[in-house]
Each structure stands twice: as C-alpha cells, then as structure tokens.
Amino acid sequence: MKTTAAVLYQPRTPLKIEEVELGPVKDEDVLVRIVASGVCHSDLHVYHGQEGWPLPMVLGHEAAGVVEEVGATVRSVRPGDHVVINLAPFCGRCEDCASGKIYLCERKRGPAGHLYDGGTRLAKGGRRIYHYANCAAYANHAIIHESSAIPIAKHIPLEKACLVGCALAAGIGAAMNTAKVAPGQSVAVFGCGGVGLNVIQGTRLAGASPIIAIDLLESKLYKAREFGATETIDASQEDAVKRVMEITRNRGVDFAFEVIGRVETIQQAYQSIRASGKCVVVGVVADSSELSIVPRTLLQEKTIMGTRYGSTRAPRDFPLYLDLYMQGRLKIDELITRYAKLEDINEAFHALEHGEAIRTVLLME
Ligand code: COD
Ligand code: ZN
Predict the structure, then answer these.
(1) pLDDT for 203-230, tens place per residue?
(2) pTM here?
(3) Are 231 and 341 in the same domain?
(4) Contact, 308 vs 90, CB < 8 A?
(5) Residue minimizing CA distance to atom 40 of ligand 1
(6) Does residue 170's CB lie within 6 angstroms of at least one atom of ligand 1?
C-alpha cells in the first residue's frame, strides 16, 4: 500500500513529506492508521545525526491510532481497536521477558532502524527506508509488531493518549518503576521537557518531597511547578548542585534524574545525590563522550544507573496511566503546546529545539 510519511534523508536537512510504499503486513504485524504523533527530543537527536541510525528513515515514535489490518497470527488486537504504540516490542518468552523485564527483551533481531523481526516495510522507488524506534510514526500509517500495539479504551482521545507511548512511559516509568521512589524521599530532576515533566509528576504521585526541578528556561520551571515541583532552580542563573545542597541542608537528594542527555548534567545529577542516593540517567548522550566520576564517592554507596524506556511494561502501564489521566490524577493536556499537521514537522522540530514547545502533537489526515 501507499502512505504519506515524513522522511529524513540527510542529517539537519528538512524532513520530506512524500508518498512511500508500506508493506507487506506479515504474520505478527499490525497495520495502524496513525491518528496522532508527538514530537519528542529523541527524534531531534536523530535529525541532528545521532550515531547508529541508518538513513533514509521515517522518525516519530510517540503515537496512537486505529488498527486497520492484522497479520495471520495476531490475537491481541483486531481491526478497529484503538492502540498506543509501545516502543519496546517483546517476545514474552526470553529470560528477560520471563523475569518481567519485557522492556529488555533479547529477541529483537537486526540492527537499529529495523522492525522487531529484523526486516523493514518502508520503501520509495525500490530504495529501502528505515523505521525509527520499531515504528516510524510520522506517517499516516505504520506497521508494528503485535506486542507494540497496546489496546486502549475507545473513549480516550487518541490525540492525548499518544503521549503515553514515550513522554509518560519514559518519565513516569523512570520515577515509579526504575527508581521506585517512595513517599517522603527527596528528588532532583535535571531537565523539564516533555519527559522531565513526567518524571516530576511520577515522583509527585509517589509522594516524593522535596521535588527540585532544574532547567535553563523560566518557562519550563513554571511548567515544572504545575507538574508538582516544590522547588525550582534556574541553572542559567545559579549553580544547580550548590543550590540542591542548600535546599537539602547539605545532605543531597535520594534520587537525581538526568532528563537532558548531556555529560555535564549527568555529572551534576550524580553530585547532587546523598550517601546511598541514586542517579538515574534517562537522557541519551547522542555521541560517544565519556563520563567521569570520582570513584571514592562510590564508597558512600552511591548508585549511577540508566533506565530503558522507564522500565515500562506497556500492557500494564499504558492503561494504568490512562486511567489516572481520566481520573484527573495525571496531566497530559498541559504537555501539549500545540496541534499541527504532518507537513508542519520541520517547524515543530524548530520549536522544540528553541525551547518554545513541550510537545507538538501532529494530527494525521
Ligand atoms: N541544564 C538544565 N536544563 C537543561 C540543560 C542544562 N544544561 N540543557 C537543556 N536543558 C533543558 C531544556 O531547556 C529542556 O527544557 C530540557 O532540558 C530537555 O527537554 P526537551 O523537551 O528538549 O526533551 P524531551 O523531554 O522531549 O526528551 C529528553 C530526553 C532526554 C528523554 C531525550 O532527549 C533522550 O535522550 N531520549 C533518549 C532516551 C529514551 O528513553 N528514549 C526513548 C524515547 S524518548
Ligand atoms: Zn521520545
């Protein structure tokens, strides 16, 4: 079949909106008509030439839509179902899946840019086009693995639900699943973009106190307060680590989350934790720079750890987050700066890069 997609041919060149070929729908595939697709900083990293991604590629990974067709062996969804895309497809049988860590499933075949089975389904004039993040959702349609199609209730607006697939999963998951923040624990969150704000609301839900938000932009810190931050630090004006220490009476925080993807801020986050504290790195540093820490400080039982997709078990977490949203206990609407069309993707990247947007949500035709 043919569909319209935004294709990245070369780093830092505008994405081209064009007709591409999509298919075939193989046995374990689900064809989704994309309704809404959020614009996240990870897409922007690839746009800027992040190592390891083959081009040309269709970006976009924070999406929701309606199932149009399913492969011969698919049982968990059927045409007409509403789904949110899970970026971490899983087999359910490998050692990681069996231990509950489906977000680490070992069975994905093929290098980055390929679907779960190691193949691709996109092409243009005989030339292969790759899929970002197991989906490629800046398009009117996407083919994903069955385990990436998480059914949701039909009364939930898809133009809101799409953000569950990345911003909420990565952010709330980092707080609640990876870090397992408990009531009364202190946290610092470096970076208050779409994902960072969700770390903040995840730690709020977990009962953390204080919740210290750090960013360079006053507009982001204003949002951070709306999402549950009890203190804010403008790192363009003052030394973030010094201020965290003042707020915590020189103890440091139980958890510091880095949600930017920069070596300097990972170092700052690590320096902000107390003895036995944990530094949780959510952001991906786009190049191969190395991190340096003073090993002696580890003797205070400090931990530095990463998180894969907020340790999200999508079939359980997506409906849970959407229930909490429908009850008014999690915010999604406030993350959306504007709605736009697929054709507006290049302006949406510009707005994200210049701090003018938390999330632009692209509505497909
Ligand atoms: N100090 C403080 N704040 C800073 C600094 C700094 N030196 N530099 C930038 N910031 C702030 C910006 O002002 C902005 O508010 C925020 O950091 C970054 O936010 P966004 O909106 O640009 O980015 P997000 O929230 O969409 O994405 C951030 C990630 C770190 C998650 C993303 O870039 C990333 O690394 N993703 C890969 C990891 C991952 O889990 N991917 C799965 C799908 S996202
Ligand atoms: Zn994302």
Answers:
(1) 999 999 999 999 999 999 999 999 999 9
(2) 0.96
(3) no
(4) no
(5) 309
(6) yes
